[in-house]
Amino acid sequence: ERPRLVFLCPGGGSQHLGMAQGLASLPCVAPWLSRADTKMKQSIGLGFWEAIQSGRLNEAPISFAATVSVSAAVAFALAEFGIVPDLVVGLSLGELTAAAISGCFSFETLIELAVARGNLFQQIEPGGSAIVNHHFELVRNLLEPNPSVNVAVVYSPDACVVSGALECVKQAVADLCEKGIEAKLLPIAGAAHSPLIDSVRSKYQATIRAVQPSPGSVPGFSSLDGQPFGARLADPQHWGRQLRETNRFDLCLRQFLPQDLLIDLGPGRTLNAALRSTGAPIINPMRHPDDEVTD
Q1: Where are the beta strands (DSSP E) in 76-119?
Q2: Which of 65, 108, 124, 146 is deepest in the core (most CB within 10 A)?
Q3: What is d(CA 286, CA 59) in angstroms, rounded to the nearest whole number?
Q4: β-strand pairing of 261-264 with 220-222
């Protein structure tokens, strides 16, 4: 029996300068990145190729648009060769990419939504995120005295991301390190899955509602709770919850089998450490910024 092919789409923080440059010469990928370049120029006045060389790459609208563009471009290019996923999963921002791959909306609409999400992040108090290598339930307990910071993403039982108001996150990192717990800030603009989202959640839902997404045709699991998409990808309420509440990527991992083939569509391999726990082989079409090889 053929192994299941699983496409995985990363969230914010996976971007890096020069990402996907090696894909520009591939006839199957270049047209998609050209479309991304045009759409980003229209939406934020900065094209894809300029963005990935820019000191502004970590600004939320720019990093979000560039990240979803490269992941979706690789997925759609693979589809031209008949390589289509049996399952698709996206973490946080990456669930938008997963929805586009599933057929909920177009490539250009995906970029629009990523930009809109980034713009909303610029309307709230400056936020931050940090990776913490410790059991997420213990981290959650330690954060209880600080309601401005919470567990945003659970990668695995012993690795999570916390997010919230930037200064509060910095203090949380210092407090955790003082207790001997490894924690460090991430290059992510804004604070998804934190109380800061409450003020823009309804706006985000309205943005999703305006594009009228369809339920999609490729099955997958939501990073919100590790459960099948069903018809939820067409429901703006789901997207509001997925942006505000803790994302349980660890529960998605439980759905994978050692004989599955996992393709991490991200430019930074931010999912790889968690994916290795599945025992399934992982393919990375894009180079890590530390690699000397090309994409």
Answers
A1: 87-90
A2: 65
A3: 22
A4: unpaired
Burial tier of 123 (Cβ tally within 10 Å: 0-12, 13-18, 19+): exposed
Please state the pTM of the whole predicted model: 0.94
- pLDDT (tens digit, 9 = 90+) per residue, 143-189? 998 889 999 999 998 999 999 999 999 999 999 999 999 999 987 77
- The values of phi and psi at residue 282, to 5°, are -120, 135
Give, in order, the Cα–Cα distances in Å from 78 to each of 30, 50, 84, 125, 157. Answer: 12, 25, 7, 39, 32
Instruction: Give the CA distances from residue 278 to residues 68, 156, 281, in Å, rounded to whole numbers and listed in that order.
Output: 24, 11, 9
Q: Do 240 and 199 contact (CB within 8 A), yes or no? A: no
CB atoms within 10 A of CB 7: 29
Query: Where do we find the tokens 């399934």?
Result: 280
Check if the beta carbon of residue 248 is closer than 8 Å to that of residue 223: yes
Among all chains, which residue has been given the structure tokens 């603009």?
189
Distances (CA, A) of 109 to 12, 97, 184: 18, 10, 33
What does the mean pLDDT of the chain come to? 94
| 23, 69 Cβ separation under 8 angstroms | no
Q: Measured between alpha carbons, how far is 201 from 191 in angstroms, rounded to an integer?
A: 12
Bridge-based pairing of strands 5-9 and 220-222 is unpaired
Angle, alpha carbons 83-86-92 (nearest 5°): 105
